């Protein structure tokens, strides 16, 4: 399909110690207009699909984005033409090697309420790559941002509404608490099926457990890429293929619900199904 656009980052942060490993880079890009974000939030607000039970181990107040009829075709096209080509370029994969493990709208708010959530505790996502698009104007809230342990310091906060933040989901991170207002995000968990990725390792418990420590992050990033500078890590090697977790195959996109890959070694499966049609669409490459 014609008309694809690959976004160029306006800022790139590198995890100290990740050396040449591209998974250690966190990128911020301009992505969508303010009007587009407002439209997305309006459509999400009008949906009755909001819940708190889609991610068992690290729950968020969220909504499965592809289940909203008005959003589905548009998101599929943006994914095919912009998001996947951009992620693929930034991390050295082909767009066709990427697939969604989940795509959802999250709402953090400083207000009190039954389902209100101010932030998200530290975790690793199930996905090798994760992104979020800021659907709220940064002036509409205080606090917030994506706090990545290995970067230290402040949370990553994009400049403007509609900006995209991309990082490896295997870097332990949290959603910094919102102290005023509301912060809406579109979050994507993106799996990668590539000969250059060590999927059995990524499915192992070693790569999934919510253990704190930048060394663990670095070891996971090294082992995640075949020949990516990690082959000689004895610690990762001793754990790498033992967890098995064969039943947690991220290839089965319609069956990998449950947590973000936190402490739960047996996420509740098949609760977050993406419709097969959408998957077929999203697997399509832009025929470069
Ligand atoms: O709040 C953020 O910026 C991060 C969200 C996140 O990590 C997640 O939804 O898994
Ligand atoms: Fe996350």
What is the secondary structure topology, with strand pairs?
Layout: E1 11-14, E2 25-30, H1 34-46, E3 62-64, H2 69-91, E4 98-109, E5 120-123, E6 129-134, E7 141-143, E8 146-148, E9 163-168, E10 173-175, E11 178-192, H3 199-203, H4 205-208, H5 214-224, H6 234-240, H7 276-283
Antiparallel strand pairs: 1-2, 2-9, 3-4, 4-11, 5-10, 6-9, 6-11, 7-11, 8-10
Helix pairs in contact: 2-7, 5-6
Residues 123, 125, 130, 173, 260 line the site of fe (ii) ion (FE2).
List descriptors.
alpha+beta, binds fe (ii) ion, binds 2-oxoglutaric acid, single chain, disordered C terminus, 8-stranded antiparallel β-sheet, Jelly Rolls, 7 helices, Pro_4_hyd_alph, 288 residues, metal-binding, 2 domains, 3-stranded antiparallel β-sheet, globular, 23% strand, oxidoreductase activity, acting on paired donors, with incorporation or reduction of molecular oxygen
Tell me what you see in this structure.
This protein is an alpha+beta fold and 288 residues long. It has 2 domains: 25-194, q2cbj1_9rhob like domain (Jelly Rolls), CATH 2.60.120.620; 199-249, no CATH class. The chain is 25% helix and 23% strand. The protein has helices at 34-46, 69-91, 199-203, 205-208, 214-224, 234-240, 276-283, and strands spanning 11-14, 25-30, 62-64, 98-109, 120-123, 129-134, 141-143, 146-148, 163-168, 173-175, 178-192. The strands form 2 sheets. Strands 1, 2, 3, 4, 6, 7, 9 and 11 form an 8-stranded antiparallel β-sheet that branches. Strands 5-10-8 form a 3-stranded antiparallel β-sheet, with no helix packed on it. Helix 2 packs parallel to helix 7. The longest helix is centred in the first third of the chain and has 23 residues, at 69-91. It starts with 10 loop residues before the first strand and ends in a 5-residue tail after the last helix. The model is unreliable at 229-258 and 262-288 (pLDDT under 50). It binds 2-oxoglutaric acid and fe (ii) ion. 2-oxoglutaric acid binds at residues 60, 106, 120, 125, 132, 146, 173, 175, 185, 187, 260.
